[in-house]
From TrEMBL:
The lineage of its organism: Bacteria, Bacillati, Bacillota, Bacilli, Bacillales. It comes from Paenibacillus hexagrammi. This is Uncharacterized protein.
Length: 68
């Protein structure tokens, strides 16, 4: 992964943005801890920018989890 960030874009809404590529096709998994909306991104050998919106209904401290 080249760069990953999770920036708050509004109350309870977060935008996950990453520039990523892989030598082998694979899935990248991202989620905010204890939040139901998990993100799965299919990655290949071409560098691409991926953006997803994660909604948090109840404000609280969450960890951003990334899995390859």
């Amino acid at each position: 992964m080249d760069r990953i960030s999770c920036a708050q874009s509004g109350y309870g809404t977060y935008k996950l943005s990453m520039d990523v590529k892989s030598t082998q096709p694979r899935n990248v998994y991202a989620e905010l801890q204890d939040v139901a909306n998990k993100v799965v991104i299919a990655v290949d050998s071409t560098m691409k920018k991926y953006e997803r919106i994660l909604d948090v209904i109840v404000p609280s401290s969450k960890k951003l989890l990334i899995g390859l």
